[in-house]
Design brief:
370 residues; Citrate Synthase, domain 1; 2 domains; three-stranded antiparallel β-sheet; binds acetyl coenzyme *A
Amino acid sequence: MTATKGLEGIVAATSSISSIVDGVLTYRGYDIDDLAANACFEEVAYLLWFGKLPNKAELDQLNKSFSEYAPIPDELIAQIKLYPRDLNTMAALRSAVSALGLYDAQAEDDSQEANENKAVKLQAQLPTIVAAISRIREGKEPIAPKQGVSIAENFLYMLTGEEPSETAVKALDQALVLHADHELNASTFAARVTVATLSDIYSGVTSAIGALKGPLHGGANEAVMKMLNEIGSKENLEAYIQQKLDNREKIMGFGHRVYKNGDPRAKHLQKMSRELGEQNENTELYEMSVRIEELITGQKGLRPNVDFYSASVYTQLGIQRDLFTPIFAISRVSGWTAHILEQLADNRIIRPRAEYTGPTTQKYISIENR
Ligand code: ACO
């Protein structure tokens, strides 16, 4: 038995949800470029869960369910008010989603119908939770979700209480489409491992949020913005990046386990970043990002991943840095729950082996003699 570090190249499951073949990402066979250009996030969530694009009646019904389920229990809001103000937003989201399961009478119902319903509920409620966390830690009251608007619009509205611009809603909606699923990424794998023990869907999503939080995965978008803030302006950029490269430090937002010739999602976010800069008549953040890409790709051959340009996109939408990874979760919960449903439809516990590298043939020594 020999281990492969990081399970690189190991095919650990079959899945018909999304695929990456020769650098092309598809959801249920639809190219991400096609979906990013044409689909709204709600259609994509339906596609991931049910394997086909919804017709008008199906989409209307799903949107009705999202509106119905979007409010979160008062007990959960009361709990969030007890969290420390200087919280880590992903830790808060992880705690809140775990607690959310306590208030769902269906939580332990493991029928397929109940699990599909819980997937819709989680998708509806995560944006409300993230917005509530954001407002409560600022000492403000949470804002109740609106009925009959898209997930992207509702989320931006619940953050500020103001009507978001059409541009902002469109940009966020497209970002949600791009982040919705990604084959057997670390957080999705964590979700599948958890529910494969026949634990519940809330436990699966809580595991996934914990895995997404790390800077090698979803947390990288916040780390990218931290870097851009540290650089501050174009004049400091080259020296800053060179020092990081000389110190052999990782540059967040670059590299990928699967994509070696570029992440197909990055170009859409790059375009969005440029367009938002042009609209705001301030393209500095975009230009800095492009220059960093030139340096990193030039010197290390590494290409930007989904997290790199999403940092400048969200900042230009006026979103605070520590909400970037929770926004990733708002989108990816569609993929996590689709994978949970797929895992449970043909389940076997996920239990690999470890290659033992510790000492052997040890003999117990009594405590007085150690
Ligand atoms: N900056 C500098 N060097 C890098 C980077 C980077 N961002 N990424 C990889 N490398 C280097 C590694 O140091 C390694 O060099 P070495 O062979 O000289 O040791 C080589 O490239 C191969 O990289 P690995 O770390 O083996 O790649 P792995 O597949 O294990 O990790 C990962 C992939 C985690 C994405 C890595 O590229 C990384 O840490 N990137 C920065 C964090 C990041 O952006 N994460 C988000 C990924 S996308 C997502 O999860 C949503």
